Structure formats: structure tokens, C-alpha cells
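Example with several molecule types.
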Amino acid sequence: MFKPLDPLLHSELRLAVMSLLIGTESAEFPYIKEQTGATAGNLSVQLDKLATAGYITVEKTFKGKRPCTLCSITPEGLKAFETYVETLRDYLNPTQ
Amino acid sequence: MFKPLDPLLHSELRLAVMSLLIGTESAEFPYIKEQTGATAGNLSVQLDKLATAGYITVEKTFKGKRPCTLCSITPEGLKAFETYVETLRDYLNPTQ
DNA sequence: ATTGTTTGGTTTATATTATAAACTACTTTA
DNA sequence: TAAAGTAGTTTATAATATAAACCAAACAAT
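Resulting C-alpha cells for the full complex:
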């Protein structure tokens, strides 16, 4: 009856990150950190997990002399997010 | 921007249990076990957590000679579920 | 020019959580 | 009455999340 929820997305911080990235072309590490309220360490770990899964890309560039980590959602990431939302619907609308 | 998600509800099994209980007056342990596909041990632990939080009641009765554990959602549980769904919405509809 | 401070992270240790294996107790069936 | 099934609980372990500690470069002050 209840299909399993993608454990990679069923995590508050990773879900917030994906949610943020869906709306934008790309986002910088400090911006994501600020928007999610996460600590840098936690965010670093969770971005790694999403990148390893192929849900996002993490590009290390420079902004002038300073390092700049740019994150973007991948097509697979978008697909996984949509599937997650669809699956979750069965948990949230019990009457339907 | 992202409000915290009730950690008690942001768990696959506990969310499934709550979802089940919303539709019914009460449900027996074996029924919940079957519907969620959980192991008895895991279910027992998670029901305890929901009961401790006051989200459900767990009543130990008998059905003839056999023990029968009946679970029901409480008004606080229903409220918490609704709040959770509302909060989650911000994570799921990033464009809105 | 060296010292301290900020920025931008990563690594790692710890706390929390989920999960299943092992166990208990009682009932039914052979 | 022995074996098997039902209905769970307890407990040990695996997985996960999280923050503390750390690192490196850049910038600012003395």
C-alpha cells in the first residue's frame, strides 16, 4: 500500500536543498547555507550525498580570488524529486 | 524560509501509521503491520514513540482469549499531522 | 611583514534514529 | 504434550544526521 520513500530525499536538509535548486539555474554554497539554516559541515556532507547519487552537480569555481561552490540540480535529480513527491502524496492524503 | 519538520512525523513508518489511523476509528496491531509491511519489532517501537508523544493511543484489550492491541489517533495527533503536511508543502512546491 | 580575522569550506567524531534479530508469553493444533 | 502459530516487546546493531574541530586561502590591522 505504501511505496517506499527515496531515503535520499526523505531528509529535511537534503529536501530543502533540492527544493531550492529546483527554482534556480544554480546556487552558491553560502546562499544554500543561509536559506536552509544548516551548518557548513552538515551542508557539505548532504551536498556530497546528493552529488554522489547524481541528483545535483557541484562545481568548484572561483569568484575573483575566492573559491565558489556552485550547485545545480540534474535531470535525474528533478525526476527523483517528482517521484518522491508523487509517492509522498499517498502518505499525506489518506482519504483519497 | 524552511520551517522545521516535526521529526516524529518525518519518518516513513510513523507517517504511514498516522496516515492509516486518520482513515479509521482504530486499527489493530497486525493490521497496521500488514498494511505498512513493517516488522513487528519496528512497529512496536514506532507505535511507542507516537504514543509517548500523545499522537496516538494504544489500548491493550482482548479478542476472546487473544491479546489485541488497538491504536487510535488523538486530536493532538491529527493536529500535528495537519501541521506537518502544511509545513512540508513549502518543501514540495518550490515554485509557489 | 607577521598576527589576527573572516570566508569557504572538509573531515571526523558523536549523538540520534531506524531497524531487525532475538526473545517472551500465551494459544491453538496435531 | 509437543510443535507451531499469534502477538507482541526488548535489545543489539546498522544507518543517518549533525555539529565540533579542523584546514587553507584571503583580507585587515599593527
